[in-house]
Specification:
Elements lengths: L7 E2 L16 H20 L7 E2 L3 H6 L1 H15 L6 H18 L5 H15 L4 H8 L1 H10 L2 H14 L5 H12 L5 H14 L4 H13 L3 H13 L4 H17 L3 H12 L5 H10 L5 H14 L3 H33 L3 H14 L4 H13 L4 H14 L5 H13 L3 H14 L4 H27 L6 H24 L3 H21 L4 H23 L9 H16 L2 H14 L4 H14 L3 H14 L6 H20 L41
Antiparallel strand pairs: 1-2
Helix pairs in contact: 1-3, 3-4, 4-5, 5-8, 6-9, 8-9, 9-10, 9-11, 10-11, 11-12, 11-13, 12-13, 13-14, 13-15, 14-16, 16-17, 17-18, 18-19, 19-20, 20-21, 21-22, 21-23, 22-23, 23-24, 24-25, 25-26, 27-28, 28-29, 29-30, 30-31
Length: 679
């Protein structure tokens, strides 16, 4: 059977019976049980005999209640004739103390126990057995909670009388009694310093000194004392207390990793949990369970849940994690209201880490991530996680998840979210509008028009086309702005490409009047300038789509066939899809110049090309080419000619031709053709 290890109560006996406190295996435990029975029988046969009694081995004593009862009654009968015998009084003190524990009820055993110990001290103030009993943690704990202040003072006085300079046990026991009183730590420190100064090789003295100084919040000095004790190679049981003391010091210094390491080492010594607790209590330290709870809670608060588990147990960890998660959630809510999104995000993230299945915490993290304007991928994760716990119940949940997907460049994913949102909330105007915008990112103008028609059937007026364009432009600008603010250069570049394509589409569609057309021309220039700036700073240049390459190949075929106008149109469409594609822009510029009337557009495209490739292999030749074109343009303007733009061109539409009014607006069939090849 398994024994609960305990403090031994030392009494003198000739010959003595010893009951060992350590039980490392079953055979040793059985030996302890036999010795316990022998001890009970010895006192039953001769109550004046004194023995080692394991006071808290109640599982053994309880199994032998009959032997205990005989011993108890025999000792009480003998007391009538031996009231002054300190041996008998000490034994009776132990037996009264144990009686209540064996019977499981309060029969006044602690008070009667104290009465007999005080009588034993009065008869012999230096009686070692009595002092050993009184110094044990089992008795001290009971006395502190059950005796009056006067009775405790009497016990202390008795120990003080017994404490002559060389009586280290009495001084040690008095020190243990004083440690329990926060108001008398200074006195306890005097005794602790006396012990280490007169016996510096005793590890126990250093442990007690460390405990006192820890209670006095002299943490560094306490840690030094515990480390000194550890260096003296103490017994395993004392080593456990030392490591607990070191852990407590490190915890007080907020060094959680060091505290965790010391606590884990203490638990790995192979001591039974009761042994470790007993050793801690004997030396005035917090119990391992209590300290482990505090350490586990701190580890949970710092996000180290896995390490906390070994100190709290799964049940404790779950409760603690739930409590800490709610605290973090409340703190995050306060930060969120004050728009401190970084701290709110950190708090909500901790709450989700501690309780990953609480919908409110996940929802808060998703909302905060989105509203911060910089954590759209976390917002996507949060809303997707939320959807696995409960269905979306509000339009803004679809709106924010869909927009977050679009901002990260996932227009197809955004389209799926808004499609679902439109089915669940068919009357929500925001979901309708965003569904049109993200559909443009997937299928272009025609697909966006199809979705638009679901809510605007049979209406293709000038005003309707303008409203459709405004919806698309405003939505794409917001998406691009959000991407730019979170620092996504590649994604922002992609969004600007869509805006550029939309503006070019509006130019071809003739949606606006003259003022609107001028706005489109300026917007195209601004968007493209932004794209050029981003492109030049990208370490890896974006690739172009298959459709872009197809249009470029078509333009090349028209060049080879001599149809410059169609070649320019094909290259123009290719560049609309890839406004910063150097090869396409170069070919457009050279082809437009070869046709003659599109000289302004050719100059503009060549300037953009050189800004994208400022240090190319043929840059000098290309700059000379551009200078020649600019001279040609100045001469043409000087003679009063009008300008023709590249079809669907980068500067808008509706400009007149360049080479004189007598041309009648026709594109010249002949002109200087500059030999070139696609780059």
């Amino acid at each position: 059977m398994r024994l609960i290890p305990a403090v031994l109560i030392l009494l003198t006996l000739v010959p003595p019976h010893f009951a060992t406190v350590y039980a490392d295996d079953a055979e040793f435990a059985a030996s302890c049980e036999r010795e316990m029975i022998n001890a009970l029988q010895a006192v039953g046969q001769n109550p004046k005999a004194t023995v080692f009694f394991p006071v808290t081995c109640l599982d053994v004593i309880t199994q032998h209640k009959e032997a205990f009862g005989q011993t108890f009654e025999s000792a009480r009968r003998l007391l009538r004739d031996n009231v002054a015998d300190p041996h008998l009084r000490a034994n009776l003190g132990v037996l009264y103390f144990l009686r209540d524990k064996v019977r499981g009820e309060n029969l006044g055993g602690v008070e009667r126990s104290a009465e007999h110990f005080l009588a034993a001290l009065a008869a012999d103030p230096r009686h070692p057995a009595t002092l050993a009993y009184l110094g044990s943690h089992a008795f001290l704990d009971a006395y502190r909670s059950r005796l009056t202040a006067a009775q405790l003072n009497t016990l202390e006085t008795g120990l003080g009388r017994a404490m002559v300079p060389d009586n280290y046990p009495a001084r040690r026991d008095l020190l243990r009694l004083l440690i329990g009183d926060p108001g008398r730590l200074a006195e306890a420190n005097v005794h602790a310093e006396y012990l280490v100064s007169h016996d510096p090789k005793a590890a126990e003295s250093w442990v007690l000194l460390g405990s006192v100084r820890l209670l006095q919040k002299r943490t560094s000095e306490a840690l030094q004392a515990f480390n000194t004790a550890l260096s003296l190679r103490p017994a395993k049981r004392e080593e456990g207390a030392i490591l607990l003391g070191i852990a407590a010091c490190r915890f007080a210094q907020n060094e959680l990793q060091a505290a965790d390491k010391a606590m884990t080492t203490a638990k790995s010594l192979g001591l039974w949990s009761k042994d470790l607790e007993t050793s801690a209590r004997e030396h005035g330290l917090e119990s391992p369970d209590s300290f482990g709870w505090s350490l586990g809670k701190a580890l949970v608060a710092s996000g180290q849940v896995g390490q906390a588990l070994q100190h709290t147990g799964m049940g404790g960890l779950q409760w603690m994690a739930s409590e800490e998660a709610f605290r973090q959630y409340k703190a995050g809510a306060d930060f969120f209201v004050s728009k401190d999104y970084d701290r709110a995000h950190a708090a909500f993230l901790k709450a989700v880490q501690l309780n990953p299945f609480e919908a409110d915490y996940i929802w808060a993290l998703a909302v905060c991530s989105f509203d911060s304007g910089r954590r759209y991928r976390e917002a996507i994760w949060g809303y997707q996680k939320l959807a696995t716990i409960r269905p979306f119940s509000r339009p803004d949940e679809y709106y924010k998840l869909g927009l977050a997907r679009a901002v990260t460049g996932d227009y197809a994913g955004a389209q799926a979210v808004f499609d679902e949102g439109a089915r669940k909330f068919p009357g929500d105007a925001a979901i309708k509008a965003w569904r049109v915008v993200v559909t443009y990112g997937v299928g272009g103008w025609d697909e966006a028009t199809r979705v638009w028609r679901e809510n605007h059937p049979g209406n293709n007026t000038y005003a309707d086309r303008g409203e459709r364009f405004n919806t698309l432009y405003a939505g794409l600008r917001e998406i691009a702005g959000r991407a730019e603010r979170q620092g996504g250069r590649y994604i922002t570049f992609g969004h600007l490409s869509l805006i550029y394509r939309l503006l070019s589409e509006s130019a071809r569609q003739g949606i606006y009047n003259d003022d609107g057309k001028r706005w489109v021309r300026e917007s195209l220039k601004q968007v493209r300038a932004n794209m050029v700036e981003i492109y030049r700073n990208l370490p890896l240049k974006p690739t172009v789509s298959e459709e872009t390459l197809r249009l470029a190949a078509k333009g090349q075929a028209y060049v080879d066939a001599g149809d410059i106008q169609k070649a320019v149109e094909s290259y123009r469409r290719a560049v609309e899809l890839a406004p910063c594609w150097p090869e396409g822009i170069y070919n457009l510029a050279v082809t437009a110049r070869a046709g003659g009337p599109w000289l302004p557009g050719a100059v503009e495209e060549m300037m953009i090309y050189l800004s994208l490739e400022p240090e190319g292999q043929n840059t000098a030749r290309e700059r000379a080419m551009l200078a020649s074109w600019e001279n040609d343009l100045r001469r043409a303007l000087a003679v009063g000619g009008e300008i023709v733009e590249i079809p669907g061109g980068s500067s808008g539409e509706g400009l007149a031709e360049l080479y004189g009014a007598d041309n009648g607006g026709a594109i010249p069939s002949k002109g200087p053709v500059i030999p070139w090849r696609p780059r």
